Amino acid sequence: MAAPSNNPPLLEVKNLRVEFPTRRGTLLAVDDVSFDIAPGEVLGVVGESGAGKSLTGNAIIGLLEPPGRIAGGEIRLEGRRIDDLPYEEMRKVRGARIGAIFQDPLTSLNPLYSVGHQLIETIQTHLPLSSAEARTRALDLLKEVGIPGAETRIDHYPHQFSGGMRQRVVIALALCAGPRLIVADEPTTALDVSIQAQIIALLKRLCREHGTAVMLVTHDMGVIAETADRVAVMYAGRIAEIGPVRDVVKHAKHPYTKGLMGSIPSLGVRTERLTQIDGAMPRLTEIPTGCAFNPRCTERGGRCLVERPDLMAVGATRAACWQHDRGGVGPAIVREAVDA
Amino acid sequence: MFVFILKRLLQSVAVLLAVGFVAFSLFRYVGDPINAMVGQDTSAEERETLREKLGLNDPAPIQFLTFIANAAQGKFGLSYRTSEPVGRMILERVPATLELSFCAAIFALFVGVPMGVYTGLYPRHWTSQLFQAVSLIGVSLPTFLIGIVLILIFAVWLKLLPSFGRGETVDLGWWTTNFLTWSGLKALILPSITLGLFQLTLLMRLVRSEMLEVMRTDYIKFARARGLTNRAINFGHALKNTLVPVITVAGLQLGALIAFAIVTETVFAWPGVGQLFIQSVQFADIPVMAAYLLLIGLLFVVINLTVDLLYFAVDPRLRSQGGAARVAGH
Ligand SMILES: Nc1ncnc2c1ncn2[C@@H]1O[C@H](COP(=O)(O)OP(=O)(O)OP(=O)(O)O)[C@@H](O)[C@H]1O
Ligand code: SF4
Ligand SMILES: [Mg+2]
To answer: What is the ipTM of this complex?
Structure first.
């Protein structure tokens, strides 16, 4: 249910760069990433471990852990620039306009406070409600996320809930002040496989009902295919391909995406080939010149070793691959490189 | 929870019996009490009568039981040195030690914990580095040296504070207190600082490392993502999670404060039980030593029990587990 394209985007990320100063120079972990999310839209973000998905999400919610920092670009929410807000201003945005859900529900909740306390505290931080009103709202939210017996459970402590139930509470916490966007970073990875689907379905339903947009970071292409409106594929700190989910999943334009689709056989979406991508993503210090994917790419040409491709439109999708440029990938590489 | 407390109580009794046994052994094996009590010219016959009268000829287990029964009623016999009842001698001096330890504990707690929170929240700030450096001095210098230096500065050079004694005290009948006179309060300052400094630095370092640890946890990150204020995060969420270890250490250190007040009391000629103990050791005044041992043992046991109960108040996980595992994950 992507919003019509004439709507202004809810979130705009433009040329985002995230870097880490280290003793041996500065590491560029997110390199020139741009994308939009429309109101109510679910953007899936996939990519290998270390691709920069979490850093991008953390940059959006303003919680990059030092020494990581935004080195360039801008982030706008509802047209307002938020990447350069002072801490206190950004704090008011977090929770209120942008919610976040992290990977591990077991550790996301403070063990010493009841879930009701944590909900009410968040609600009252952002909304001018009395304690009684906040409690009612908390109770409604707990019911909404499907906590059975919410009236008694509201006073229970996190350790009295199962992992799945805790992640439901976390979702309630992320939604409790009515944010327009939720950044969900692998919200089900730590959960039992049997409840992963439930949690994703819940997240999807609630966000649809509340009109909340989601940036959903996940490794699970099945989840993406089922949940997302659009998908962004990240590789070595850059977006390799971004587009409507059907196009990306069924007609991937970037060789990396093709490999990624192939490496997950159980997605319930038919792919012609079951390719595995040989090799591993390069470390940040060893990103090759030209296309970062070139050591692993079976379709590369001479140009790929020299020039770095930017995203270019291919139908409804955009992909960072010279195959889709008028100039092509360049001359075939004769000598088979062994560096992969 | 009830079962847990009952278990703890039984353990406490066992500990006290063990301490009692050590105290009792002092009587039996450290010197002959009769020698200490009578003059050189007492005849062997008279000694034997006294022995019989004091129950020293009974079998050891009987003597032990008598000892424990008496101790439970606060009867420790007469001091070899002053021939006064030991119970009374100790009770007279308990207020001095407790008031000193109390002030030292307050000092350590109310300065050490905030310093720890601060250095934990802003580890890179220069004041934190300064606190860290000063705290190193605090843990490494011996108490008596700190006491002497303080005396030198504030009593000898600046002549601001007294260097020894309790000053004027007010007798409330069952308790003599420093808190009601100006000179009594002034007399408390230097000894309290001397006694509390080590615990202050210990608490500061503990709170600091616990804070650093907690600030890295997922639930703090999530609390930030929920947009809670720094105040709520630092004090509501982070500090509360450092409390369990802090309570443990603070509790045990309170016991240590009282027990190791000995050195401070000696340096400042503070008329507390510690000073009494030192005098008793010099005179091999076994009844006083034994009573002191038991008193300290009792103190540690009571503090430990209190600490256990505080855990329940702080940590909901314990309340439902019945305390089987002492805060797993800490
Ligand atoms: N504190 C740091 N110092 C240096 N490099 C870092 C730091 N934190 C992250 N990185 C680097 O940034 C890159 C991107 O990390 P990020 O956490 O965004 O990956 P990810 O795509 O979320 O991976 P995963 O799927 O494993 O969560 C990684 O290569 C990582 O090594
Ligand atoms: S640009 Fe070249 S190396 Fe990179 S993905 Fe496309 S074909 Fe492969
Ligand atoms: Mg991640």
So the answer is: 0.88
